Every structure is written in C-alpha cells, then in structure tokens.
Amino acid sequence: MTREQEPDCVEGLDHAWTGEGEGGCDENPGVWSLGGTAFKFRRHCRFCGVVRTEIEHGSQRNPGDEDTTTYEVGTADEEAIAVERRRLLRNRMARARRRRGRAGASIRAAPSWPRW
Ligand SMILES: [Zn+2]
Questions:
Q1: Are the C-beta atoms of 23 and 29 separated by less than 8 Å?
Q2: What band does 116 get if pLDDT is binned at 50, 70 and 90?
Q3: How many independent structural domains does the chain possess?
Q4: Which domain holds residue 62?
Q5: Is the pTM of this model over 0.90?
Q6: Ligand 1 center to residue 75 CA distance, Å?
C-alpha cells in the first residue's frame, strides 16, 4: 500500500532516510537512472522502516511527466529506535548539566560587596 503523505516516524524521533541496501548503483545506493534526466530515488527510514520512493524527471521531461513521492509502510527496526532514543536522552541530560554549570558559574562570579 502506498500513499503520498509522509507518515510520522515513531514517537519522539524524526525519519533518518538512507539508501543503504536499496540497490541501485554502487556509488549511489537507492538511485536509479530512468533514462534522460529522469531518476528514481528509493530511501527508507532507519527507525520506522517507511520506504520513500521519489521519481524526478529533471529538465528533459515530457509534457505530463510529474515528479512523484510515495511512501510505503515498512518494518520498524526496534534496536535502531532504542539506540537513537538513548542517544537523544543522553544529549538532553548533557545539555541540562551544561545549563546548570553555567548558572553556577555566574553566581560564583557575582561581584561581592566590599566588607567595611
Ligand atoms: Zn521514520
């Protein structure tokens, strides 16, 4: 089943598109030449597995040739999702730590009143 609206990725993540393992030419996985200036791009999301297929006709298009983008539901990679969620959580905690560190530094750097 295909559709033209981009589906959401799994909760909390954005799609990470890759052409790896999609076939096509070696230097450009997931890319096929359709002749002339037309190309097909096939990518899937490393997390939720949605497959995105784009057909682009380029400058030498015939009348009526429309670029299309379609999406197919794929198989989610639970392990990649878990790894990415842990990474995002670590980043968030590191940012929070840095923020606290800066606040602490500015308090210490506050001018002290002279003691008479
Ligand atoms: Zn996704």
A1: yes
A2: low
A3: 1
A4: 2-76
A5: no
A6: 10
